[in-house]
UniProtKB/TrEMBL annotation, chains A, B:
InterPro entries: HTH_LacI, LacI/GalR-like_sensor, Lambda_DNA-bd_dom_sf, Peripla_BP_I. It comes from Herpetosiphon aurantiacus (strain ATCC 23779 / DSM 785 / 114-95). Keywords: DNA-binding, Transcription, Transcription regulation. This is Transcriptional regulator, LacI family. It comes from the Bacteria.
DNA sequence: AAATTCTTTGTAATCGATTACAGTAATTTC
DNA sequence: GAAATTACTGTAATCGATTACAAAGAATTT
C-alpha cells in the first residue's frame, strides 16, 4: 500500500501539496496538480481513512443500534439507513441489543470509542429515561421511540393517530367488542393504546378493562394472550395487536381455535410484513413508512453532524392503513 | 475526552508506562500500575481506537457484504455474524449490493480503505469469476456461494445434497411430474439443480426440460414462472423452488389458480422463513442452518486474521428438511 | 522603485496511541 | 566487590494523513 509520502516523492512535491490536490484546495498550479494526479493514478494510491479520521477527529461511520435486525420493521429501516448513509459517503456499524439495557449502554460506549459521527438508536424505556445522564459525545437520532421532553432528535410514526385509524377501521367494519394487545417495553405501545382508546370513546364504545393487555412484544406472548382473550365469558369480536410479532402469535391462536376470519373474529396489526399479505385471509395492517423513517433519520443525524448547534427536531410520519380480508365484514355487524 | 497524555500526567509517569499498564505488559511496578489505573478510572479514560488502529495497522472491524439484508436468509445470517463478531471484540460494517457487481467492487474497495480486518461476502457469479484478479488486501470468507477452485475460504450449505433431499421428499410423497424454478444469478441455484436432477434420475423419473426454469431470484419471477408451468398441456404435480422469494411467488400463483395444496399441487422451497409456517397449508422447506453459517463464517475470518498463512478451508453444512402440509399427500399418488 | 498583496509551495506540528531503544537502579552471580 | 543480569521507566520515532505557519517569488499598487 502506497502512502501520501510515496505519491509526494513520485510527483516530486511535498506531502502538503499532495494533500491539497486531493482535497481540491485552490492555490495549486495546474501543472503540479496534474503531476500529482498522475502519480496518484500510477501508484493506485488510496488515502488511509484511519489516518484521516485520526487527524480530523471524526469518522465517516454512523452507528445503527436496534433491538433485533430480524424484526421486519428494523430490517426495512436498516436497509434505508444504509442506502442513505452510503449515498452520503458514510458507513454503517450495526448492533443488536435484544432490548437489553446493558447491551445498549455497552454499544453506546463502543460507538464513542469508535468515534462514530452519529448514531441512530431505538432504545428501551429504561435507557430512554436515563438518556440525558449519558452525556454522549456524538449526535443521536431516536427512531420508533422518543422522549416526551423535546430535546432529542427523533423520527417516529404518529402512533396515536395510527392506533386511532386502525381501531376506527375495526369499528367501521361493525366490530364492537375489541381486544387489544400492546407491547409493554416501549413508549410506542402506550401511544398506540391512546389512539385505540380515543377511537372507541369517539364511537361511544365503553372500554372493558379485561380486553386490554400489555405483554412482552413476542410471538409467544401474542399467542397465549389471544387464547386468554378468546376464553373470556364474552370473548372479543376482533383482536388489535400493536406489533407484528404479536400479530403472528394472535394469528396462530385464532387458527388453533379454528375461528373463521373475519366472520367470527377480526384481526389487525402493525407493519406490512412479507407474510401479512401471504396468509389467508391476508391481514389488515397499519404500514409504517419504513423507507422514509430510515432515510429521514439518517439525514437528520447527518445534518446534526454538520451543525451541532441546530435545534432538535422530531419528524412525525403518518402510517398507511392497508385493508385486507382479516377485518372486512361482508355484512356489517348489528 | 482525555488522552493517554492526560493519564500519564495525572499518574506522574510517561505515556509508555500507561500504555504498558493498559496492555498488561509485565515489568511495571505494582505501585505504579495502581497509580495509573487510578488515574484511568478518575479521568474515565478510554483509549482512542482510531489512533490504536493507525499505529497497529489493523482495525477491529469486519465487513459484511450481502445482496440484500431484507432477504430472510441474510437477515438471519447477519444476526449471527454480529453476535459472534462482537463476542470477539469486533464490529460489523454492513453493505447491501443488490447483486450489482459494480456495487460489489465499490464496497470491496471501501472495505480496503477502511482497513477492515476481514470481510464476509456473498458475491454474484460475475464477481466470483474475477475474484482472484481483485487482489484484496484483507482475508475474505464467502458465504452461500463459492468458487470451484478451492483457494478461498467459504461456508456453504451442501446444496447438492439439499436439493436431492427436497426432491426425494416430493418423490416419496408420490409426486412424479415436478416443476423446478432456480435462481440464475449464483452457483447456489446450479448446485441445487444438480441434487434435484440426481434425485429424479435415482428414482427413475425422466426429466422434462420444460419443467426446468432459471430466473431472477425475485418473487415476481416465481409468480409468473409458476403460472407458466401450470399452463403447460401437462402441468406439473408439484413445484420445487430454490429460494424463498421464488417460493412466495409460486404460492401466490397457486392461490390465484385456486389449486388445492397439497392435493392438486405440491410446493417446497428453501429457508425456514417466518411465513413458511404461518401460511396454510404451511410450506415444506429445506431449512439452512443460518446461525451456524454466520457463526462459522465469522470464526473462519477471524482465524485467518490471526494466521494469514493457514490453508484455505470450505465448511459445508447440512440443511434440515422440515416437512409441513404443502407437500404431504394423505393418499400416496398412483 | 518600493511597498503591498497574492500565489504557490514546503516545513514541521499535530491527532493518540504503540514500541524500539536506551538508560538507571536493583539484584544476582562469581 | 566487580561484573553481569534483570527490572523498571522514559525518550522519541512511528503509523498516514491534515494544516498552521513561513517563505519565496510573482503580480499589483502607489
Amino acid at each position: 500500500m502506497s502512502s501520501i509520502k510515496d505519491v509526494a516523492k513520485a510527483a516530486n512535491v511535498s506531502t502538503a501539496t499532495v494533500s491539497r490536490v486531493l482535497a481540491n484546495h485552490p492555490h495549486v498550479r495546474q501543472e503540479v496538480r496534474e503531476r500529482v494526479l498522475a502519480a496518484v493514478a500510477q501508484l493506485e494510491y488510496r488515502p488511509n481513512l484511519i489516518a484521516r479520521n485520526l487527524r480530523s477527529q471524526q469518522s465517516n461511520t454512523l452507528g445503527l443500534i436496534v433491538s433485533d435486525i430480524r424484526n421486519p420493521f428494523f430490517t426495512a429501516v436498516s436497509r434505508a439507513v444504509e442506502d442513505t448513509a452510503y449515498a452520503h459517503g458514510y458507513n454503517v456499524l450495526l448492533c443488536n441489543t435484544d432490548e437489553n439495557p446493558e447491551k445498549e449502554l455497552l454499544y453506546l460506549q463502543l460507538m464513542g470509542d469508535e468515534q462514530v459521527a452519529g448514531v441512530i438508536f431505538s432504545p428501551t424505556l429504561q435507557t430512554l429515561n436515563r438518556f440525558h445522564e449519558l452525556n454522549l459525545s456524538f449526535p443521536t437520532v431516536l427512531i420508533d421511540r422518543s422522549l416526551r421532553s423535546g430535546d432529542v432528535d427523533a423520527v417516529l410514526l404518529d402512533n396515536v393517530s395510527a392506533g386511532y385509524t386502525l381501531a376506527q377501521h375495526l369499528i367501521n367494519q361493525g366490530y364492537r367488542r375489541i381486544g387489544a394487545i400492546f407491547g409493554e417495553a416501549s413508549t410506542t405501545g402506550r401511544e398506540r393504546q391512546r389512539g385505540f382508546e380515543d377511537a372507541l370513546r369517539d364511537a361511544g364504545i365503553s372500554m372493558q378493562p379485561e380486553y386490554l393487555r400489555f405483554v412482552r412484544p413476542r410471538s409467544e406472548a401474542g399467542h397465549s394472550t389471544t387464547l386468554d382473550l378468546l376464553r373470556l365469558p364474552q370473548p372479543p369480536e376482533a383482536i388489535f395487536t400493536s406489533n407484528s410479532l404479536l400479530t403472528a402469535g394472535a394469528l396462530q391462536a385464532i387458527r388453533e381455535r379454528r375461528l373463521q376470519m373475519p366472520e367470527q373474529i377480526g384481526l389487525v396489526g402493525f407493519d406490512d410484513t412479507a407474510w401479512a399479505s401471504l396468509v389467508q385471509p391476508a391481514i389488515t395492517v397499519l404500514a409504517q413508512p419504513t423507507d422514509e423513517i430510515g432515510r429521514s433519520a439518517t439525514e437528520l443525524v447527518l445534518q446534526r453532524v454538520a451543525d451541532p448547534q441546530r435545534p432538535t427536531r422530531k419528524i412525525i410520519l403518518q402510517g398507511e392503513l392497508i385493508v385486507r380480508e382479516s377485518s372486512v365484514e361482508q355484512r356489517v355487524r348489528a
